[in-house]
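Exercise (ungraded).
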Amino acid sequence: MPELPEVETMVRGIRPFVEGRRIVSFAKCRCRYRPIAIAPTATAIARRCEGRTIVAVRRRAKRVVLELEGGSAFVIEPRMTGLVLLADPPDRAHLRVEWALEGDQEHNSLWFWDSRGLGTVRLLEPFALEAALGEVRLGPDALEMSESLWRLRCAATARPIKVALLDQKLVAGIGNLYASEILHRARIHPERPADALNRRQVARLAEAVLFILEEAIRYEGSTLSDGTYRNALNQAGSYQNAHRVYDRVGEECRSCGRGSSLRIVQAQRSTFFCPGCQR
DNA sequence: ATTAATGTTCAGAA
DNA sequence: TTTCTGAACATTAA
């Protein structure tokens, strides 16, 4: 389930092969399931992008952005199971979109592959881009948050801190897995109301967000037991081996040595934490 | 054979 | 205003 580190890994993986290349064609793939949600229509997208050069590849929160010459951009949202691939898709049945790239290099196609089909691909004009990616819709990127901004934003809601971390308007890029890992490093109980955190705890939270996300990026993200997440070359990440609490129920906490990971449910999602060190 | 669970986002309700 | 719930979907485990 691509969160910020996985999407950052996708972006870094495709950037050297995609930036500066011209799109020869855009097409929906023959897919065994219902067609992917793309906008506008496939033919309109093709008409607007074919012949254009991809001038930059960047990440915004959990989205991949392919900027085209002229200012429009593809916004790719992998959601649960979407992958952005340069090679070796896991199967053909779930291939959703193909961009053919001009030239004769190592990789001449970029694909969007998505098992569950919840992901989306949109081609947006500049004005719509700001509406889709701007700070009205999405909060500041998790890697851009300052300690003082964390203080302001935490003070503004009484929801449990774990639930608040998943609110993409409060902060963009953190998902269910990394929320648990971040709170464990910060030694904060996931049920603590965000506005009840003291100054020291918010400082630890700000540090933990950067530490955990940057560490996960170095490991190229987490590939869970279902194996869905892969990088641009269909290789697994390795951060799952470094998880402290996520999906480790009953395992002793390596930080405090006096508790083991526990699973609770918050807002209909699993939360994992160590009752020994998270208060 | 059914059912629950998985986690992201958005619309709509409380 | 803020917070919560359900639906979109394929796949796997119980």
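Further reading is listed at the end of the chapter. For now, observe: Chain A has two domains: 4-133, 142-242. The domain at 4-133 of chain A is CATH 3.20.190.10 (N-terminal domain of MutM-like DNA repair proteins).
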